[in-house]
Amino acid sequence: NSPSKLYLLFKNPAETALNEAVLDFAVADKKLFYLTNTTLVQTYITDPNQSSSILIPKGFNNLELSPSLGYVVLSNQTEKLIINLNKRTQIPATTLLGQNSELIWSEFDQLFTLEDGNLSQIDIDAKKKTQLINSLSAATIADERFYSVTPQNTTLQLKSQGLSTLGEKVADTALLDLPNFSTVRIIATPQKELFILGDGTLYKVNSSLESLADNIISANFEPDRNALIVTSKTGLYFYDFDEHVLRLITRQSEPIPFARVYPELGYAFLIRNNSFFALELDDRDQRNNYELTKLTAPLGMQLDQEGKRAVILDGKILRIFKIR
Question: For residue 193, what is the enclosing H or E element?
Fold first, then answer.
């Protein structure tokens, strides 16, 4: 499907360079958070001069935002720290969260961890961890529903239950038996559409599994735009939720590390060969691609919700580009 409007993009877009010592960053609509060796900074993509900062211990190099922006989780290879953005308090969380745990958030900032098959609920401010379920192969949350994959004899089973009933003796709903994948991940949308990434193959969950593509490296769903972008060893794809098909954006001999898709604009944005590109999604005629600007050493890319500004970590310089 092509968008109802034609959106024009700026060649060599206007740029604002924010800081020359950035280790990581995250964008949430028009808010921008970035991390230096001693500071967490919160600002706005449209007005970077309006900012506030929190001093933090040295050594953290990764940040993760909670969905409702109540918390930021900072981490490195050995430590974790949670910052309550409303109270501006810092909570040491290495033991609380576990070293190798997967963080699973509800849309209202309830936090769960999955580590070695054990699901626990985290009361962040009380620094309390409550184990709920064990022997899980995968888990996720969407629209206040909890989805899990559990071993079942010689297969796996995809299950669902209301998030509020976790930890209670309430029957969950078995949705589908799955092959005995050695690695498995669930992708769930707020519209209750489900995908399984099992042993490198992406499946759509219908009455049975529908294979969409194999040799998959990553599949990332962005709920604010209902966009699923999929990277394989040789190509970049997005899922067309209107037509219920996986569409190829571009083929590539090397995996594309940073990409975002905006179906409503008709573009995918990506970095390759140290340049920032926009690719048309409409493939009915020759698909055009546009080099918007050159980069030096790109380490990350995100866009705001409307696709008007791109934020790129280029080396340790955080660069904001107004692209339309």
Answer: none
H or E segment and range at residue 215: none
Place of tokens 């590390």: 257
Over the stretch 204-236, which tens digit does the pLDDT of each residue have? Answer: 999 999 999 999 999 999 888 889 999 998 899
Whether the predicted pLDDT of 10 surpasses 90: no
Give the pair of three-digit tokens for residue 267.
């573009």
In angstroms, the first-to-last Cα distance of the chain is 21
Q: What DSSP designation does 64 have?
A: E
Give 227-277 as a DSSP string: EEEEEESSEEEEEETTTTEEEEEEE-SS--SEEEEETTTTEEEEEETTEEE
Structural tokens at position 154:
């010689």
Cβ–Cβ < 8 Å for 34, 18:
yes
Burial of 52 (0-12, 13-18, 19+ CB in 10 A): exposed
Q: What are phi and psi of 95, to 5 degrees?
A: -75, -40
pTM of the entire structure?
A: 0.91
Tokens 């060969």 map to which residue? 273
Residue 165, helix vs strand vs coil: helix
Nearest to 312 by CA among 24, 65, 62: 24
Residue found under tokens 């192969």: 137
